[in-house]
Write a sequence for this structure.
């Protein structure tokens, strides 16, 4: 994604902002839910990839602005999983 947003990368990707692509996140999530409801595993796999692509792109936009990185997002997910499952990761 950093190559796509680099000066010699894709003009469309370079001009995107959190706001300009926010509707894509909703659209891809709906398409993933549709695949789940239709029990279409191949389509679900594709749509989950599209959701992940949105996460990666939003994270790169944030990294370019000095806000946060994809590593920060992953660390937050990890911390949340541990926090929400003390019966697995804690001493409960």
């Amino acid at each position: 994604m950093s190559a796509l947003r680099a000066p010699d990368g894709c003009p469309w990707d370079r001009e995107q902002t959190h706001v300009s692509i926010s509707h894509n996140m909703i659209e891809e999530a709906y398409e993933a839910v549709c695949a789940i409801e239709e029990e279409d595993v191949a389509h679900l796999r594709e749509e989950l990839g599209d959701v992940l692509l949105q996460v990666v792109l939003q994270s790169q936009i944030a990294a370019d602005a000095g806000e946060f990185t994809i590593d920060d997002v992953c660390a937050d997910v990890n911390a949340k999983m541990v926090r929400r499952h003390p019966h697995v990761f804690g001493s409960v």
Residues 35 and 43 are 6 Å apart (CA to CA). The chain is about 75% helix and 0% strand.
